[in-house]
Write a structure and sequence with these properties.
The chain has a 5-stranded parallel sheet with strand order 2-1-3-4-5. The N and C termini lie far apart (51 Å). The chain has 175 residues and is of the alpha/beta class. It has 5 helices and 5 strands. The chain is globular and about 65 Å long. The chain has a domain of 122 residues: 3-Layer(aba) Sandwich (Rossmann fold), CATH 3.40.50.1220. The structure holds flavin-adenine dinucleotide. The site of flavin-adenine dinucleotide (FAD) has 28 residues, from helix 2, helix 3, strand 4 and helix 5.
Length: 175
């Protein structure tokens, strides 16, 4: 049996012409053989951070400079109806909990639009978001690796670009 992490591949169209043989196999395992048991189910997060299912993700990296500046990431996510993602640098710094982390040791995501704000584009981050349909990167360093995987790139300071984007999207929504 083979399994992959959610969103690693795009879901193909269902092919109803394909058939298979269902073989019922009786389990020989007795309940006393099972050494693990479910003690509790703790839901730490609701739809507001369901990154795997999100169609729009706005992620922030260390380039956001301090946790308070994540209000801009949340602002853009809010106006677009998206959810907030983060790089590992942000999670390691304690700015955001781990369930926001995108990448090799975080979530693998495949939204329609992925904003990478102040994220360098390290290979471990890209591993988690490269199957996004459209990637928009904002970084003040024109040579940042994230621009290699971006469809649209904005070279600039997140502190200037993000407020301008939020303002424009608000205007567009009001029309
Ligand atoms: C085994 C392993 C697993 C890992 N797993 C993950 C993972 O799952 N996810 C992950 O993200 N990383 C992961 N990493 C870490 C990864 O290698 C990088 O260290 C991390 O992604 C860097 O995060 P960052 O891009 O936010 O920070 P940085 O690399 O510090 O980049 C910050 C970027 O912000 C830009 N910037 C700074 N100020 C501004 C500004 N004012 N405006 C605009 N841009 C600005 C800079 O130019 C820079 O490009 C892993 C590493 C290892 C070794």
């Amino acid at each position: 049996m083979g399994t992959v992490r959610p969103k690693v591949f795009k879901r193909p169209e269902q092919d109803f012409s394909r058939t298979g043989e269902i073989v019922q196999v009786a389990s020989k395992i007795k309940s006393q053989d099972i050494r693990t048991k479910l003690v509790d189910l703790v839901k730490v997060c609701t739809t507001s951070c369901n990154l795997e299912e999100a169609e729009i993700i706005v992620s922030g990296g260390r380039g956001m400079c301090k946790p308070e500046n994540f209000a801009l990431i949340e602002g853009l996510a809010d106006v677009l109806g998206g959810v907030v993602g983060a790089s590992r640098a942000v999670v390691d710094a304690g700015w955001k909990p781990h369930f926001h982390q995108v990448g090799q040791t975080g979530k693998t995501v495949g939204p329609k639009v992925y904003f990478a704000c102040g994220i360098s584009g390290a290979i471990q981050h890209v591993a988690g978001m490269s199957s996004s349909d459209v990637v928009i990167a904002i970084n003040k360093d024109a040579d940042a690796p994230i621009f290699k995987v971006a469809d649209y790139g904005i070279v600039g300071d997140v502190m200037e670009v993000l407020p301008a984007l939020i303002e424009e999207f608000k205007k567009a929504k009001a029309c």
